[in-house]
Write a structure and sequence with these properties.
This protein is α/β, with parallel strands linked by helices. The protein has 17 helices and 15 strands. The chain is globular and about 65 Å long. The structure holds pyridoxal-5'-phosphate (PLP).
Length: about 475
């Protein structure tokens, strides 16, 4: 991507975040060129591009202004409600269909939460890969047994520090993605029949792990802005013997909620009081639209009884194909988790770990994050705008402050499972709401993956989806 396009993306990110408001004048070119550290002509080119896309207007002798918003932001969904009964997970077979479609080049991929490769740092990462093959060919061909490569774990420890978690490299266990980290976490602390509290709705991959381990899920009401309801969790703790609670405190999937620090602190205190293990999925933690990285839940547990198992990966930021993530179990659980990792697949690919080590050490990861965060903010804004234009008026949509998915709540009678099957005929995949719930709630909701390049075909797909929904409303 050209430099001026990158700057245009960043300015548009600031507009989405509300840093520059509709109708306001942008800072002058000289000031912007200083802020972004680029030439005045790059700023001028970026402003022209934003004028062409309708985000800015030029006023003679006055400068550039943010265009007034000509569309109404749809309302947010209300906090969810559940009946606080543990249930066996059902209805997850459908998810395999979504997974298969992810690799289908003819489909518009609005279903699985997988960013299009154009959102990944493929070219810069390729350099790290090539260098690794050149310099560490023999090592890359060998196992790196658990807990994983020391130099990679060192790089992760540095990143964890930025999110408030003070960990040493030897406290980190490398895994095959976040999915394995979640599975190992549950296997480490729970057994078949145990009750696991989860956010409702939640990421379907987690439901599948709970199902495959024969555990029961207890869905806890969750607010699209502030995350899991602590009152409901406390009530559930009084009623049921909960072993663990798995949640995404930062930019959850699918709601996009983020727990304020005060609530993270309260949650850790509640967990300590009830001896409840918290399993934190922080896969989107680096993808906030503002500059500041939110703190991990893990960082709030370090002074207490170390109640949190932290899980994450590079699947949403660098590449899913690397299959590389990590977990941080409390010290007392480390050995068991490490052994389970060894038993399940011996090791995580060495090549991925070495290449990621280089990418992190050279600053490529940080540079990519700076770009991608504002691109995702822009995508969320474009999708929200399209939903406001093309979908039935009473469609409710989340307003995430990070990540790249939107959760939509439609009229109660709409069946998004049927809708998803109809959309397949148009080669469009969407994720129907019911796969995000153990008890198959949310049949009238759906999740959209917004990390797709904005093209006329994509806009047309959203028009079509809106038409199908409007037809269902008649
Ligand atoms: C919330 C969440 N957690 C975990 C995963 C699994 O990630 P990985 O590819 O790193 O195994 C995903 C992937 O979609 C996800 O969205």
């Amino acid at each position: 991507m050209m430099l001026y396009q990158q700057i245009a993306d960043q300015i548009s990110g600031r507009i989405s975040e509300g840093i520059y408001l509709p109708g306001q004048r942008l800072p002058g070119v000289r000031q912007l060129s200083q802020q972004f550290g680029v030439s005045i002509s790059t700023i001028v080119q970026a402003q022209r591009q934003l004028e062409n896309t309708g985000l800015l207007e030029a006023r003679p002798r006055s400068g550039y202004y943010v265009m007034p918003q000509s569309w109404a932001i749809p309302e947010r969904p209300e906090a969810t409600q559940t009946d606080l009964q543990p249930t066996a997970v059902t209805g997850q077979e459908l998810v395999l269909q979504l997974a298969h479609l992810t690799n289908h080049p003819d489909f518009i991929q609005l279903g699985a939460a997988v960013p299009d490769p154009s959102f990944m740092p493929l070219r810069t990462f390729q350099r790290s890969l090539a260098k690794t093959v050149r310099q560490h060919n023999e090592q890359a061909a060998s196992y790196s047994f658990p807990p994983g490569l020391p130099e990679f774990r060192q790089q992760i420890a540095r990143r964890m520090y930025l999110a408030g978690s003070k960990v040493k490299a030897d406290e980190i266990l490398v895994t095959n993605g976040c999915q394995e980290a979640l599975s190992l976490s549950l296997q480490t602390v729970a057994t078949a029949g145990d009750i696991i509290a989860i956010e409702s709705p939640t990421f379907y991959g987690l439901l599948q792990v709970i199902e495959s381990l024969g555990m029961q899920a207890l869905e806890i009401p969750t607010d699209p802005q502030t995350g899991i309801s602590l009152t409901a969790l406390e009530l559930a703790l009084e009623q049921w013997d909960l072993t663990a609670c798995v949640l995404m405190p930062n930019y959850s999937n699918p709601l996009g909620s983020i727990m304020p620090d005060s609530r993270k602190q309260q949650l850790v205190a509640l967990a300590v009081q009830h001896d409840l293990i918290l399993i934190e999925d922080d896969i989107n933690g680096d993808l906030g639209f503002s500059a500041e990285r939110p703190r991990t839940l893990h960082s709030f547990s370090q002074d207490s009884a170390a109640q949190v198992i932290y899980c994450s990966s590079f699947s949403k930021t660098v590449s899913q194909g690397l299959r590389t993530g990590w977990m941080i179990p409390p010290p007392a659980l480390f050995q068991r988790a490490e052994y389970l990792k060894y038993v399940s697949n011996l090791a995580t690919p060495t090549l991925s770990q070495l290449a990621l080590t280089d990418f992190l050490a050279q600053g490529g990861y940080e540079r990519h994050l700076r770009q991608i965060k504002s691109r995702y903010a822009q995508q969320i804004s474009l999708f929200t705008q399209a939903i406001s234009k093309y979908f039935p008026v009473n469609t409710r949509v989340t307003q995430p402050k990070g990540g790249f998915v939107l959760w939509l709540e439609l009229e109660k009678h709409i069946d998004t499972l049927q809708l998803s099957q109809r959309m397949l005929q148009h080669k469009i995949s969407i994720a129907p709401g019911q796969v995000f719930s153990a008890a198959q709630k949310y049949g009238h909701c759906l999740r959209l993956n917004c990390a797709q390049p904005w093209t006329p075909q994509l806009e047309q797909a959203l028009v079509l989806l809106g038409e199908e929904l409007s037809a269902d409303n008649d």
